[in-house]
Amino acid sequence: ISICRDLPNIEVITFSVNGISDLEPLHRCQNLSELYLRKNNITSLDELFYLKTLPRLRVLWLAENPCCGPDPHRYRMTVLRNLPSLQKLDNQAVTEEELSQALVDGVEITAPPARRSVENGWAESTASSAAGSTTEPGSELLTCSLEETNKTQEELDMKPVPRDKYSSFSPQETDCSCKKRNNVLNAILLLMTELDTEGLEIIQQTVARRLQAFQKKELQEE
């Protein structure tokens, strides 16, 4: 997600189901108001340190990450103590009572998570990628079912994907296609927020031509 360092004006980011573990690139996104990080590899709540500097953050979805731990109350209280401006956490509205309780039950995060050196971090990342290419442990493998796709669509306030769209694909094909589709969709939506009127008009024209081509191809196949 290093691209976020170059997107200071972005307002909404959805990175759910993407294997993310480091939130440092987000600390420059000063206009960020909604952040969706469900089901990633964020292991420590210390990563919240990088979100504490975002004055406009109001919505955060962090559920289904290792950092949530076995105690849901402690997790929620810690997040709210460090991000008291949140209005919604994990799709649940934040109350004044919770914010007050968070001052008692939550843990204050005052420093970023400990990191290895750049060299070691790169080596570790490379080794992990190499291992992942030969083995795919069930606990770490990112799966993307129709349900996951529709959760992402829900975060983006878009219509759910009809089930019949997947009926003609095998499970393996659906999984691969869905992962690719979500990654491409997230990237496009991320970058569109940086475009001006002229740029958006070009996108609109390109999409229209693309849709016409698909429609023409479907008619020919019929």
Question: Care to give the gist of this entry?
Answer:
The chain is mainly α. It contains six helices and five strands, in the order E-E-E-H-E-E-H-H-H-H-H. Among the domains are: 2-105, Alpha-Beta Horseshoe (Leucine-rich repeat, LRR (right-handed beta-alpha superhelix)), CATH 3.80.10; 177-219.
Description of the structure:
With 222 residues, this protein is mainly alpha-helical. Among the domains are: 2-105, Leucine-rich repeat, LRR (right-handed beta-alpha superhelix) (Alpha-Beta Horseshoe), CATH 3.80.10.10; 177-219. Helices cover 43% and strands 6% of the residues. The protein has six helices and five strands; from the N terminus they run E-E-E-H-E-E-H-H-H-H-H. Helix 1 (72-82) links the parallel strand 3 (59-61) and strand 4. It is elongated. The termini are far apart.
Strand arrangement within the widest β-sheet reads 1-2-3-4-5
Tell me which CATH architecture of the domain at 2-105 applies here. Answer: Alpha-Beta Horseshoe
Mean pLDDT: 77
What is the strand content? 5-15%
Amount of helix: 40-55%
In whole angstroms, the N-to-C terminal distance is 42 Å
Poorly predicted residue ranges? 116-144
Subunit structure: Found in a complex with CFAP410, NEK1 and SPATA7. Interacts with NEK1.
Biased composition (Basic and acidic residues): 151-166
Organism: Pomatorhinus ruficollis (streak-breasted scimitar babbler)
InterPro entries: Leu-rich_rpt, Leu-rich_rpt_4, LRR_dom_sf, U2A'_phosphoprotein32A_C
